[in-house]
């Protein structure tokens, strides 16, 4: 029986030292090669890192996606560079307000609804359920 990786966004921290955490919630290890992050208009190709089942990969959001501001933004995890295709988005979160550049793609994919309410003093957001498919399954950290 084959085991497969399944990647989802699980934590974001905001500000100059911001990070994005991707967790493998699947049954087997998998590579992030061929996956992309989007904080429109910034896009980032993930490197060939093998993430074991149940483990996470953390990287600097600021150096790869630009500053994640606590007052509003979005991050989507994709399996290709076809960022408008709802078949290619795996995980998504938006905060501060709704209607960001790729939220309609996540809604069409059935993996998102609402937005995580944040303030300018919020330090970050993290999931309370995996995979998180709407704003009620995220909570704020700090602030």
Topology, please?
Layout lengths: L6 E7 L5 E6 L5 E2 L4 E4 L2 E4 L4 E2 L4 E5 H5 L7 E6 L10 E7 L7 H7 L14 E4 L10 E4 L2
Antiparallel strand pairs: 1-2, 1-10, 2-7, 3-6, 4-5, 4-8, 8-9, 10-11
Give the topology string: H per helix, E per strand: EEEEEEEHEEHEE
What is the subunit organization of this protein? single chain
List how many beta strands DSSP finds.
Answer: 11
Largest sheet: number of strands, sense, barrel closure: 5 strands, antiparallel
- Rg of Cα set: 14 Å
Strand order, main sheet: write it out.
7-2-1-10-11
The portion of residues forming beta strands comes to 35-45%
CATH-assigned fold name: Immunoglobulin-like
SS-based structural class? mainly beta
Overall mean confidence score, pLDDT = 93
Figure out the total of helices. Answer: 2
Gap between N and C termini, in Å?
46 Å
The helix content, as a percent range, equals under 10%
Q: In the CATH classification, which architecture applies?
A: Sandwich
Shape: globular
Low-confidence stretches: none
What is the CATH class name?
Answer: Mainly Beta
Number of domains: 1
């Amino acid at each position: 029986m084959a085991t497969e990786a399944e990647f989802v966004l699980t934590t974001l921290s905001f500000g100059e030292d911001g990070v994005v955490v991707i967790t493998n919630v699947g049954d087997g290890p998998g590579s992030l090669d061929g996956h992309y992050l989007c904080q429109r208009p910034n896009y980032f190709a993930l490197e060939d890192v093998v993430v074991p089942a149940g483990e996470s990969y953390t990287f600097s959001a600021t150096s790869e996606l630009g500053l994640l501001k606590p007052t509003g933004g979005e991050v989507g995890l994709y399996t290709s560079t076809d960022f408008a295709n709802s078949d290619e988005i795996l995980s998504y979160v938006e905060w501060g307000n709704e209607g960001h550049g790729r939220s309609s793609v996540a809604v069409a994919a059935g993996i998102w609804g609402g937005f995580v309410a944040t303030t300018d003093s919020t330090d970050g957001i993290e999931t309370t359920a995996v995979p998180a498919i709407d704003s009620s399954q995220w909570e704020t950290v700090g602030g």
